[in-house]
Amino acid sequence: YNDPKVRTYACRLAYDREYTPMIGRLVAQASALMQGPLPPEHTVSYQGRIAVKDGEPITFENISSGRSVTEVGSELLSTLTLLLNNPFDVVKPESIELDMVIEPADSTAAIWSAQLSKAVVKPGQTITVEVMLQTFREARATTSIELKIPETMPAGKYPLQLLGATTYNSFLNQNAPQRFRVVDTQSLVTGLNRVLNMPRNRLYVVLPVPATGLAMRRHELPDLPPTRMALLQDARRLQPMEPYKNWVESNVELDKIVSGAAQIELTVEQP
Fold it and tell me: What pLDDT, in 10s, does the model give residues 92-114?
């Protein structure tokens, strides 16, 4: 893929709630492939902006590798589908701008191993995790990431998790579904902006923290006393409640898209 020329394609897209998302995806993918298929090893950096009528624009930026322009097209398809076909209101797109930069290099990596600077810590201390990454046709690379233990962390053994971006997103969906819950048009647009801008070139470290509290719709109510929790969890209430889960996390930006996960046992002792 040795053609560095910048090409601009201006298209007029007909409005239809069913076909606009599909045609939009087709136009985006076809524009990137006008010079032929991408090389076997490739990285696509892209950013876009969807202006909507009488509302906040949806902007996104991310990176993909080894997937051609599949992820770019899928994100555009799902976003337009949700805007035009949701239970709240039809959000009409007025314009779509999409920029892609394609490079003939693989940017994927997988977590190979992880090691703690110290396996026994006290509240308030900072730990360093050395993570070895297996890269494509290159020597294994090492990166480090730090995490501060909360001052109020109880003594005990805890699972410390190292997560690539995809695994981290799954972790969020499982442990904090309220952050992705949509209840109206505004929360739909806000949620799309949040999800579309979760960068793939990040490595995350996550440590669960004991917590009491509840989650109601999109709201988090941490550190509730037991009496208040019992009152809010009354079966006669119309709003369903969910247990609130808490954790501390840190992340580091890389020039690779990391996949996989690793888990290490961390022991916290009282000072």
Answer: 999 999 999 999 999 999 999 99
Give the three-state DSSP class for 47: strand
- Which tokens is 81 given? 């589908």
Please give the span between the terminal C-alpha atoms of the chain, in angstroms, as a whole number. 58
- Length of the chain as a residue count: 271
Q: Domain range for residue 82? A: 19-103
3-state secondary structure 109-164: EEEEEEEECCCEECCCCEEEEEEEEEECCCCCEEEEEEEECCCCCCCEEEEEEEEC
Domain end, chosen from 48, 78, 103, is at 103
Bridge partners of residue 266, in order along the sequence: 158
DSSP 166: H
Give this prediction's pTM: 0.88
